[in-house]
Amino acid sequence: MSGALPRIRVLDMTRVFAGPWAAQILADFGAEVVKVEHPRGGDDVRRMGFPQTDAEGRETGETSSFLAMNRGKRSVALDIATPEGQATLRALAAEADVFIENFKAGGLARYGLDHASLAALNPRLVYCSITGYGQDGPYAALPGYDPIFQAMSGLMSVTGVPDGQPGAGPNLVGYSVSDINAGFYACIAILAALHHRDTVSGRGQHIDLALLDAQLAAHSHIAMNYLVSGRMPVRAGTASQINTPWQSFDTADRPLMVAVGNDRQFAQFCEALGLPELAEDPRFATNRERMAHKPALLPLLQGALMRRRAGEWVEILNAAGISSGPLNDFGAAREDPQLNHRGMWREMPHPRAGTMPFVANPVRFSETPVTYGRVPPRLGEHTEEVLAEWLGGRAPAAP
């Protein structure tokens, strides 16, 4: 046993992104995670994303999306529509610390696998339900996916090209941000509930987490702009809603992201650009004034930045104490020396592909380092192994 969560047993009865993401984080931290899947097809995400291939270009049967969300787990295949499957899962839950599910609200009650039923078997169980809209409310029974929550939470109203510019309109964030945020909140809540169980109450509890709620909470600092001022945040492209200059600029070869955090940094930025007089201009002396006079300021900055290449500007601005960086694609990010120094790009042996590249967990513990002991499992690969370890090798008889 290793990691920060030894002896913590997790049943991951989730599909697609949010739940599997939360469970993978727990696995990275040392928990024993068992992924419970239907024998026919398993997790839908097994069929989403780009196919994994071996050294000869042959497909292994796994996909990029499944590989991204399911390392560190073992897979058990159970059909919970059968009495035998229900009995087996209840027996496993009796031995678990955490149960994560993302069925529709109330959907597991008919199988006797809802929180009340499993808590009666195992009062110490932390039971986490992840749904689109939560366990109650007018939308509780509705299905939902990430783009719906990006739209409904207000995120897309501030993401995209500003009105009046070419291509104006809302854009979808380029990854399933609502799922990932919900997965983070789920992991945080599970750890808090385990701590409360083990230090205060001795009992588990039910966590009710909605993707819509999680996405709104994740950008609450933007929502607060509206709540505090009554002014509606708008689409700003790459620009900040509250600071300027804080956006991408064109250079002689490619775009450059610049983030100036305060008035002192603005003076340093202007000096580096060869425009020290801008910092003394009363229209630009403070961030509030700069925000009010952006149409006058930005063309002046843009004209100066076009005189050099992005790489040259990064060196100049870094030396001046100004945060900047190129707009990388993943190929460029893969070669970035800082990301490589930090070990964020990893590989692990894979029985069918030879090796599996992956993005590392970013957390660095001083005493319980993250380890990557298992590749994402094949469907049902560990059914007999887990039943032997958890239940003594035999599934309980159905009632």
TrEMBL record:
Signal peptide: none annotated. InterPro entries: CoA-transferase_III_domain, CoA-Trfase_fam_III, CoA-Trfase_III_dom3_sf, CoA-Trfase_III_dom_1_sf. Keywords: Transferase. Pfam families: CoA_transf_3. The keyword Lyase does not apply. GO terms for molecular function: CoA-transferase activity. It comes from the Bacteria. This is Crotonobetainyl-CoA:carnitine CoA-transferase CaiB. The lineage of its organism: Bacteria, Pseudomonadati, Pseudomonadota, Alphaproteobacteria, Acetobacterales.
